[in-house]
Fold this protein.
Amino acid sequence: MFSYRHAFHAGNHADVLKHTVLVAALQYLTEKDAALTVIDTHAGAGLYRLDGDYASTSGEADQGVRRLLEGPLLPNQAAPSPLAPALQAYLEVLRNFNPGKSGFTVYPGSPFITQHLLRGHDRLKAFELHPTDSRALSGNIAQLEAGRQVAVLLEDGFEGVKKFLPPPQRRALLLCDPSYEIKSDYGRVLDLITDCLKRFATGTYAVWYPIIPRPEAHDLPKRLKTLTNKAGKPWLHATLTVKSGSAGGGLPASGMFLINPPYTLKAALKEALPQMVALMGQDKGAGFTLDSAG
Ligand code: SAM
């Protein structure tokens, strides 16, 4: 069950999509004074070395986040300039973890990006079930001395969220980012979101998923759309494809599905997604989609 380690993939194109969306959503949701609760159902280790063994072996950040600094992967592709505000905001968060450096050697995962953008009265509940990653996350978080602001839970994130919804101030962002190592994760995501909407219909829910030739992966965004439409809630769906197929290995594409998204997000992604394609696209199959309703 636990062969997935995010350290191999940190800073890849899927992280660029997911974390650009996360930064944009958090910036919007922290504009209001009332406290925000962020629930990270699958938090990972929190901090990753891009020059460490895991990331160097896979080289995924070289084809991902580093393109934002070093320009397009394809030689005949023009570099977008200036970078879209959403990408600039994402880079600014990353720079904070790499002070004084021109490039990136440290990559912050979702709990660190989140904690960086939270105010003192906001709360982060970070679930991580892999004992090694959970230990690493607890150790990394302890160094922040964030006290009660951040709770790391060595629990099943699909189950554990229930106790935090609805949140005290009735404002929450939930990021659901499983590794989808096991087929049942797709169904568990749907069950989780169905249950969350019953517990707290006005929360913002963000689900990342891989676009791979597997029926469950294909069906997940469709089923999320159906259940969100049934609940009468607005949604936004963004996908990023960096190559035509899985030739050469590696994930070709991924998507983010948001329920009750910030109303500013669509315009922000409309600018950022074509630039992600220009920078990280690996062949003519690269592209994006952006849909919304409500
Ligand atoms: N959200 C992280 C980020 O953006 O930096 C990356 C998370 S990674 C894709 C998925 C993580 O979920 C892995 O670290 C894995 O060990 C953990 N995991 C797998 N099953 C889980 C479960 N049922 N509950 C909580 N964590 C789980």
In short: The chain has ten helices and ten strands.
